[in-house]
Amino acid sequence: MASHSLWPTLFQSWLLVFGLLLHSALFLGCFLVPWERLPPSASLAIPVLDLVALTLTRSGSNGALPGLGVLALFPVIWLSASGLRAKTSLAISFVGPLLISLPSFISRLPTPTAADIFSMAVLPWLLLAVSATIRLSGSNARIQQRRVSERDHALRQLLAASKYREMLLETILDTIDVGIVAVDSKGQTLLINNQQREFLRLAKAGPDQAEDLVYGLDKRTPLPPDKRPIERAIKGDTFADYLVWFGSGTEQRAISTAARAMKRPSDEDFRGAVIVFRDVTDVVDALAAKDELVANVSHEFGSPLTSILGNMDLALRGDEQIPAGPKRHLEVVERNAERLHALVQDLLMSSAAVESVYLRRTDVAGLVENSLVSAHAQADAANVGLVADVPSPLWADADPLRLGQALDNLISNAIKYSPGGGRVKVRAARDDGWIHLEVRDTGIGMTADETEQIFTRFFRTDTARQAAIPGVGLGLSITKSIVERHGGSITCSSMLGQGSTFTVLLPVVHDDAAAAS
Residue 490's closest CA among 505, 475, 500? Predict the structure, then answer.
């Protein structure tokens, strides 16, 4: 009954009524006031006035509502989570609850209740701790948000830079007249430029672009899929100046290709390859025209030289009637005419080697054996031993006449440049779709600079000239042309005084069973 009789008297307190009205006004103000039009700090008036309203309400209740002080938690949270300065919000969080509890505590002196003592001694510190915790959490959240914002800004910058580099790369690739394609280890295209798309269009035929127009060096033999540049690169091959022909008829183009593998530096794991395609039709046509000119000129030289040599031979047959002086002069003429005739024959052979190569299944072991038999007389005269290590049969796609000519050149050179005797070893083996053919001698060798130029036409080493070893420097150039016409390659390694090694790579035959049968 006492509590029922207390409530009517509470509303007779003007402090309580004013506090309740202030609470109501603040509640309506939260919805009715256009806070978005006001400065951000204007909304802080609500928690501050809420603390004032709680002070009035607690004071007007005359101790009947001791739990009102706990409601200060809400304005304290608001102030602590706002943008108010830390010292100000902490001070209000401590002083506000203290002022709420102070009137009731003073009115009950000297015998305050336990609730009054709690409100005075514990509640301000408790709300101060809450405010400090919120401030600390908010500070950490702002730091994290700032870090996230910085990372987001950095990522946006990296993305913009990446897009710019991608645009720059695409522009560069589409500007150059070289076809470029990058593939991964599974053969999927990673990057391709417009010029390469044009090359691929040239290499296709038929209504559905299903027919491949990719040919070998003779411009007629279709290139097997495993010997095409992209397929070779996917297998991990690294090559340069690998010539193929795209298209047919008047649109047929000579394409020089090169490939480099992409590998991780840590474990050398194959990640893909970049293949470059370059149109060298004009260069090939120019070389063919030059070879044709050389062949024509050499042919025109051949007839007069044959006549000169024939007449010199007739003249020298009657040497008993020729005085000694004129006879020596005639012998000099004959010797130089023979040298010039040999040079013309080499030039004719060089042109023929470039123009006519007819591939078919050929046993390389048989060609090596024939070349060694032919070279035995030369080797015996030079006191050079011949050694062969070639498995039989060893099938390859080759022109037996031209490849035999190349082998003759390599073995003859190996014997010729071993003037003090020694040994010439020929070995061959099949490895991963290629035939490795090696001719090694123990002769005079070459310097590194001479090795780089050894396949150049008319090039001769200083040592060969000083030793008066006969030759005009065309044999190895002819050999290189023949090997490249077979879709292969030839390299040389040498050290002065320690001999030379010539290594030839040739594609194997594609149907071993048919070749064996």
Answer: 505
